[in-house]
Fold Transcriptional regulator with XRE-family HTH domain.
Amino acid sequence: MPKDAAVEEFAGLVRTLKARDGRSYEALGRRLSISASTLHRYCSGTTVPEEFAVVDRLALLCGADEEERRALEAAWTEADRARRRAASPAPTPVPAVSAAPESNPEPSAPEPGPCPAPDPTAPDDPSAADPSAPEAPRARPRRGAPAPLLVAAAVALVMLALAAALLGHPTRTASAPAPASTAPGRTAAPLPFTWSISSQLWEGGCGHTYLVDRAPRAVAPPPDAADSGAWAGTHGAVHGGAALVRITVQGRSPSDAVVLHALHVRVVDRAAPLPWNAYRMDNGCGGAVTPRHFAVDLDRPRPLARSVDGLDASGAEVRKIPAVSFPYKVTSSDPEELLVSARTAGCDCRWYLELEWSAGGRTGTVRITDGGKPFRTSGTRGRPAYVHDSAGGRWITDSDSGQTG
């Protein structure tokens, strides 16, 4: 398959969904929390989204059935592989190192040494013996060696057995501790829902600030929003001032609903804001927020996820959507999207979320992290701020660009 054939196939399926729905790029983008230009790049095959969740939401908005969604996920998987291959630099060829020819034409022949001990299991073969080497010198070590060698071997075996008996049990316990949350002999039941996150969102699909510990000349130009995760990972970037985290929750059953009761914020570490440069991914672009939007002030001693109003820009006129607090219900056909906006001005904060749920007599709490690690957001107050001059192909300061910050 040609390198871009998978991307073209995926883009064709996305275009089909968009054409079936009939809404504009902007209207659908608002529903998906992405910009119209980002959605257009998906449809044209210019960009492949880093996560399938946004594509799955598009399929649900456009009325796709289960079979279409499975086909769309398979196409996205192949297109994402092609995107990753294209984004990965070609490995630098390593010149083969040829071994120098050995001076000895018979490498298997052992070097002569003083009194080599013969193999006690080898049969006596007069035809293979060297007539110039007398047999008496070879037999002499065999008569004098057995007693000390056997004693040393016996002592070594006793010591090894004693060490294994003393150390074996603690080593097994440390390497395989039993999980504290599961009773012995039982396995934890699977969650009645699935969840996924996207932690590299930009406001309105185009506005975001990263803190990077590099000089402007060592920072690449801003990426497309869909490639922000790879860009941030390459530069060791940290969210500056605010982080947007989208959580998509979907039940496993079409009829048995899962109730989401609360979303808690846990700050695990606070430090002084990072003394790094701030790089803005745009020169300022607005964007309406979406329903189920939660604001978090990380500078508070006990931050809370507070439900705030949203805006619906899918129609001819933008309308206000009143904030809706917990609880919510989700099924396999009715997923829920939670958008968390965590902001800070005075700390380098590491934090995670906890989602409380109940279903079918069961209750639980799911810890939501950034790939197993806490989310991280640092204030940008007083840091040098840069925007990218696309005409000059370089990063420039706010004062050079005319921005006031």
Q: What stands out?
A: Residues 148 and 264 are 71 Å apart (CA to CA). Residues 5-86 form a domain with the 434 Repressor (Amino-terminal Domain) fold (CATH 1.10.260.40). DSSP finds nine helices and 17 strands in the chain.
